[in-house]
What we know:
Layout: E1 4-5, E2 11-12, E3 18-22, H1 29-46, E4 49-53, H2 72-86, E5 90-93, H3 100-106, E6 109-112, H4 120-128, E7 133-136, H5 147-154, E8 161-165, E9 168-169, E10 175-176, H6 180-186, E11 192-195, E12 201-202, E13 211-212, H7 217-227, E14 231-235, H8 253-267
Parallel strand pairs: 3-4, 3-14, 4-5, 5-6, 6-7, 7-8, 8-11, 11-14
Antiparallel strand pairs: 1-2, 9-10, 12-13
Helix pairs in contact: 1-2, 1-8, 4-5, 7-8
Amino acid sequence: METVKINENIVVGGGRLTLFGGPCMAESLELCLETAGYLKELCRELDVQYVFKASYDKANRSSGASRRGPGLAAGLEMLGAVRREFGVPVITDVHESGDVAAVAAAVDVLQIPAFLCRQTDLLVAAGASGRPVNIKKGQFMAPEDMLGAVEKVRSTGNRQVMLTERGSSFGYHNLVVDMRSLVTMRGFGVPVVFDATHSVQLPGGLGNASGGRREFVFPLARAAAAVGIDALFAEVHPRPDQAWSDGPNSLDFQTIREVLAKVRELHDLQ
Length: 270
């Protein structure tokens, strides 16, 4: 399996567990700093590599009236402040090919949202940036079909690709996780990530917003770690019930501590 080098200190797929963690949306600089500071210290305690995650724009909200985030310029400034303050790498979603250059200049990893995992121009632009690319498997995609997405990025000469499992559509307003997908996607020679919080989402379950069942995060994360993963993705918020996006499936600080400790323990048994 090829490893993905995030920076001089963090290599995904090299044997140590990595956490991609932070609030769904970069609601404010204060929130980003509070969350990044806590998670950096937690990962230091648990000997887990840490990459801060937050989105500057949530372009796929259920309702057009929902908050989308600070936008490109202000959002990238917040993410840059996290990098400067804590010296941690940053991953964020990119939705438009035209945004790739600006985002790649400001963060360490580009993430392709699940709904956009077949968008050729976006995947090629992300690959051409030279940054590592994390592609989320679409809720509508079979795991074996994600090889096409990997090959689109690799066509640019960029071999720094990861794939993330985040659940598959199961009827209406529900997702189910097929743990076999982790094995299938790892077979492409790329590190695999388990998105423990989006996997318990209830898409559109609240009518004009997505619901979630965060009580299932812990068992699913344990199962994924037992199957074999290289990184855990988790949306973390100090006050999830007040989060602007994905609050019902986000974890508070105490819960991510419990989840990450167990996942690292199981990961290290591989």
